Amino acid sequence: MKAQLAYRPATVAPGRAAVLRHEIEAFHADYCAALDANDVERWPDFFSEDARYRITSRENALLDMPVGLVYCEGRDMIRDRALAVAHSQMFAPRHMLHMLGVTRVIEESGAGIVSQTPFILLQTLIEGPSTVHLAGTYFDRFIRSGEQLLLADRQVVHDTEVLATALAYPV
What we know:
This protein is an alpha+beta fold. It has four helices and seven strands; from the N terminus they run ααβαβαβββββ.
């Protein structure tokens, strides 16, 4: 993971990168719209069957530590997490809003499309102000299923070591 955090020059030609960026941004628009609408049960549909999803701190990533706040292997584990979040009310009601930066397309190969996208996740408690809940970068590898992009690997690396609240909701 440490190598992923370092700057990597893109190996995709600019024209091809623009096409892929457009596809990834359309994917992100749907992904974030589902989560922002609190449709957590739809979240696993954005992942491949054998996908990996992890949320970890920048410090852990720099130290190549596999430790993460959340770690899921396979769509079934991701679905279990989604159902647990959707059907338990262990946290105060809130609205989430994902804001994404410009996606960098790093590589395209037989193994998929590798990209990085910075994000900010805003949280608004029903009876409180909006706050930055999390900021960081998505380190993704996408694969194709027909014409559809799916996440084969999403490493969510957050920049802070101190989280304001428990991180139960998908990022």
